[in-house]
Every structure is written in structure tokens, then in C-alpha cells.
Amino acid sequence: MSFYDKLKFDAQGLIPAIIQEQKTGRVVMMAWMNRASIADTIKTGKTHFWSRSRQKYWMKGEESGNTQTVKDIAFDCDGDVLLIQVEQVGAACHEGYQSCFFRSVENGGFKITEPQLQKPEEIYKKKK
Amino acid sequence: MSFYDKLKFDAQGLIPAIIQEQKTGRVVMMAWMNRASIADTIKTGKTHFWSRSRQKYWMKGEESGNTQTVKDIAFDCDGDVLLIQVEQVGAACHEGYQSCFFRSVENGGFKITEPQLQKPEEIYKKKK
User: Fold this and answer.
1) Whole-angstrom Cα distance, residue A54 to residue A46?
2) pTM given for the model
3) Could you give the ipTM of this predicted complex?
4) Which residues in chain A touch residue B25, judged by CB atoms under 8 angstroms apart?
């Protein structure tokens, strides 16, 4: 049986993909995939997504160089979430943090929990 | 500033919450929260969700006893995903696995990557 038969895409044909850095166990981001981006992720070994805000197909790192090499693709009991283990180059977050989850709730407000590795303008000038 | 001001809920008033076991780094599940379930998660220190399929508010472990004690609540750069560190009692998955992500893609099919700790019928008879 193809694993695709186990997956449930939402009304827009999308499924959320949690990206975890295999080496550290750090969850670095969550983004959305469609069937085509899953296929390309498997074929190329690099994560590909569908951007809901930009309505655009994208490869992680295509502009920044901060690509993700796929080590494992798991899916959950309901088949409606993916968990992908990767080897992450550089910062995963477009704001220059290792993880997009760089803020935690504290006393009703929040705190920043990790250093900013790069300034966003440094990340995105690399390849432009 | 309240951290709520940083969050973006979808058209149904929901936000996905990735649940990670703090001790092991294992991502055990993803489920959906609304503002009320986030508030109760913070107030009680136990994860609360909104079930889209059952259209029902629920506390993780309310039937199984497999509760999650909250250790940290992070949110991502876009404010549209939560990452919650927990101390997990027993199996997180309703199918009796430690993690809901107990299957990985392999050669177009999939394999089961961890032992089933409990049979579902054992989990759900506990408190009924």
C-alpha cells in the first residue's frame, strides 16, 4: 500500500508538516505540503512546501541557502500531519533563529529563548 | 504585551499545537487549540484542545489517564503554530503508541517504527 493512501489532505489539498532537526531533536518549523510537494521532497531529498500566504510552491532554502536534507518522513495516526526529520543548514527561521519557535510564554507575556544567529537581511541577500 | 496578541487563529478560531515530550525530545502528537483551550492549558497546567472531528473541547488524558503536564509553551515566528513541551503520562497516541508518529515512509510504503505499548481497548477501559 502506498503511504499516500494513509494521508488525509484538508479541503485545500494541504497537510501540515512539522520539521524536526534530527541531530538535536529541535522542532524548527511547521509548514504546509500538498501532494506535489511531498513527491518532490521525496524525489529530491530536500523539503518542499506550499505557501498559503504567497500561494506559491517553494523549496526551503531556495533563497537563503538554508536547505533541509530529509532523513525521515513519519505521519500520524490520523494521517493528517507529517513529521519530517532533517539535517538543517544554518538558521531554519526566516527571522534568523535556529528555530521558528524562539519565543515562549512567560507570565502572560513572552520571552525570547535563543540567540538570533543571523539578521534577516543577511540571510536573504546571500542569493539575491 | 500579552502573548495572545502575537497569535493568529485560523477562520475557525483554531491554532495547531505540536506536543513534544520534553524529556526525550519526541514529538508525540499535534492537535488544535482555541483561545479557551489555551487559557485552560495555562491555568491548569494540563493540555486542553478543541477536537475538529468531534466538535468538542477535551483535556488530553481525560478518558485514558494519559495526561500531559505543561513545561513550556512556545509559538512560532508567524504566531500561527504552538510548540508545547510536556511531561507525558503513558502513551500519547490513542492507538497505544508513545507517539502518534509511529509510522515512517519507506520505499513508497511505510513501516512501524516503535512498539505498541498498550492496546487501545486497554487504554480506554481504564476510566470507563
Assistant:
1) 20
2) 0.95
3) 0.95
4) 24-26
